[in-house]
Amino acid sequence: MSALVLALAAGAVVGLALGALGGGGSVLAVPALIYLLGFTPAAATTASLIIVTATSITALYAHARTGAVRWRAGALFAAAGLLPAAVAGAAAARLPQPVLTAAFAAVAALAAVRMLRPGPADSGPAVGDRAVAVRPVKVAGTGAGLGALTGLLGVGGGFLTVPALVTVAAFEMRAAVGTSLLVIAANSLASLATRGATTAGVDWALIAPFTGAAILGAWDGRRLAARVGGTRLKRTFAILLLAVAAFMLVDAVA
Questions:
Q1: CB atoms within 10 A of CB 229
Q2: Burial bucket for residue 2 (CB in 10 Å: 0-12, 13-18, 19+)
Q3: Which of 29, 120, 168, 238 has the most CB atoms less than 10 A away?
Q4: Within 13 A of 95's CA, how many CA atoms are on the CB side?
Q5: Which residues does 139 contact at the CB level (< 8 Å), separation at least 6?
Q6: d(CA 254, CA 37)
């Protein structure tokens, strides 16, 4: 199978996950880039940030059209992660490849476990910019941690951002999914800003079709979630992530 076909197929899966679940797609993007397309771990995390940024912005537009984005609270959450994302992005290039791979495997396993746990249900139909009881210090601390994760491993962190917005910022699920895309896009852009030198080694002939397929997949992801059901999608995706995490961990220590 050609590299172009693999890039298109992997991009479609990443986009579907991001559009349907509000995150998690980038956790598959990095191993796909490494094991299917031959990227090094460092190059894969940089390429993943490019893919995640473009896909998140596209999905954000789709969610914003339905009023499912809380801009003010989301901006506070995202702003807190910008500096940590930039610093971690610069540090990632200095980490040994096995350490980066093992760390990513741990995050993928955490994402899978998080998805297998029962998630909070949508507590109501209201979305938008209505007032909610938000603790700025707690929101800022959580946002900073997620920003560092994005910068270091090239993942959007949506699998953590969505539950964080529900529990820390008191968002209902639909608003949390939409607003998480704003946070993901901001953190990914901040991390990319510190990786300018590393983007020179990115194979754009593969990243461009990967990103295009991911963007198209993100548009279909929301419709897929409505037809199949979020719970079933999360369980299937979590099992896949566990398998990927186990494979990456074995590869890192081998």
A1: 11
A2: exposed
A3: 29
A4: 21
A5: 73, 76, 77, 80, 168, 169
A6: 20
Cα–Cα distance between 191 and 155 in angstroms, integer? 10
Which tokens belong to 224?
């897929």
Query: Using an 8 Å Cβ cutoff, are 141 and 81 in contact?
Result: no
Q: What is the pLDDT along the chain (254 residues), one digit of tens a residue?
A: 689 999 999 898 888 777 776 666 677 888 889 889 988 887 888 888 888 888 888 878 878 888 888 898 888 888 988 898 888 878 877 788 788 888 888 888 887 787 777 655 444 444 444 444 556 777 788 888 888 887 887 776 666 787 778 777 778 877 888 888 888 888 888 888 877 655 556 788 999 999 999 888 877 776 776 676 656 777 777 787 788 888 888 887 76
Residue 236's CB is within 10 A of a number of other CB atoms, namely: 12
Q: With contact defined as beta carbons under 8 Å apart, do 219 and 54 qualify? A: no
CA-CA distance, 8 to 102, in Å (whole number)?
Answer: 26
H helices of the chain, in order, are 3-21, 25-31, 41-65, 71-92, 97-116, 136-153, 158-167, 173-193, 204-228, 230-253
- Per-residue burial over 125-152, b = 16 or more CB atoms within 10 Å of its CB, e = otherwise: eebeeeeeebeeeebbebbbbbbbbbbb
Pull the structure tokens for residue 163. Answer: 């539950």
Q: What distance in Å separates the CA atoms of residue 235 and residue 231, rounded to the nearest whole number? A: 6
Task: Determine the Cα–Cα distance for residues 117 and 119; give it in Å rounded to an integer.
Answer: 6
